[in-house]
Design brief:
The chain is built from twelve helices and eight strands. By secondary structure, the protein is an alpha+beta fold. It folds into three domains: about 100 residues, Butyryl-Coa Dehydrogenase, subunit A, domain 1, CATH 1.10.540; about 100 residues, Butyryl-CoA Dehydrogenase, subunit A, domain 2 (Beta Barrel), CATH 2.40.110; about 160 residues, Butyryl-CoA Dehydrogenase, subunit A, domain 3, CATH 1.20.140.10. Strands 1, 2, 3, 4, 5, 6, 7 and 8 form an eight-stranded mixed sheet that branches. Helix 1 packs parallel to helix 4. The termini are far apart. InterPro entries: Acyl-CoA_DH_C (IPR013107), Acyl-CoA_Oxase/DH_mid-dom_sf (IPR046373), AcylCo_DH-like_C (IPR036250), AcylCoA_DH/ox_N (IPR013786), AcylCoA_DH/ox_N_sf (IPR037069), AcylCoA_DH/oxidase_NM_dom_sf (IPR009100). This is Acyl-CoA dehydrogenase. Pfam families: Acyl-CoA_dh_2 (PF08028), Acyl-CoA_dh_N (PF02771). Keywords: Oxidoreductase.
Length: about 400
Amino acid sequence: MNQQNTISAAPADTMAERARAIAPLVRAEAQASEELGTMTPKVVQAIKEAGLFWMLLERKVGGAQADMADCMRAWEEIAAADASAGWSLMANSTGTAVPYAYCSEEAVAEIYGGPELPIMAGMLGPGGSAKETEGALHGSGKYRFGSGSLHATWIGAGMFVMDEGGMRKLPDGSPVVRVCWRPASEVTFDNEWNVLGLRGTGSVDYTLEEATIPAGFHHERAVQRGLRDWRLYDIGIPGLACAGHTGVALGLMRRALEEITRIAFGKKRPAYQTVLGDQQVFRHDFAYHEASYHAARDFTLRFYAEIQEYLEAGGELTPAMRARFRQNCIYVHKVAAEVVRFCYTMGGSEALREPSDLGRCMRDMYAATQHIFVDTIAMQDIAVPILAEWREQAAAQ
């Protein structure tokens, strides 16, 4: 593989520090990104130069091979500056790790061995179908919500695999979904992206028509074992996705708390005898929600640090451990929605009038809660292996 693919920043620094260094630019470009519908070229270039798109790639191909807790802090930093940029970054940085972790050596050499490292995006759930011939897939599909696709160089697309007898199934009876990777030049994009929140994510729809995906350039979506040396990849696609979404939610909470603090000491609401920041009920509720932010953040950072340590020590994730990726993600989004709503409500008309940073936090947060990964109905399935673990522990006492 081409060893010239090295990120420019010194290896001793962290992803969070790099993110913090470019956060002022990201914040300054937030309104322009929202109007453009995707990150501005200035923001994309800054993220490239900081190496943040490649934080989850191994060092031997030019990535940072960063600790998960460090990645979480980096996503939080960028999302606090602009949630759309944080969302795009998490989609690109986790997505860019996926084919590296799960495709064949030959595919990895082609995708990651060029003069510049690739940027991945796409919707990895099934949006199309394909038939397999001698290891290659041939199919088409229409896909929605390809976050970060407009500056990506490769696009992922999930496909059902169809055999003569119908849809191919896994041993547990669920359908086989192969994640297929093709150069962005082979994809047709619908550049319309008109939504309530996360307007700057460029989460456009796209189509893949009559595509041929060679063997090695597609892999099972439910894969739970990485093919590279770094055992972190054993968290699988759901683990990577949950981590990224959670990092964005943390950033949105932090930014909302920052904005309401700024407003609180320069605003006196009607019927209030003093500025909002000196009002007792506000102080009480602020302290409660600020604690909620720290509790959710500490839970998340500890959880991912422990998972990484466990995997790198040779451990294999149990069903309960895998369930906790989504448990953490859903829980943090619920907390974040409450924190951001409190801040928005207290912001009054300053949060209502456009443009408003706090108003954008509100729109972005409630757009984030609509993602399928944070649908609370999943908690009933998540609880099954976790309850089994608790029952086993209780029986052993």
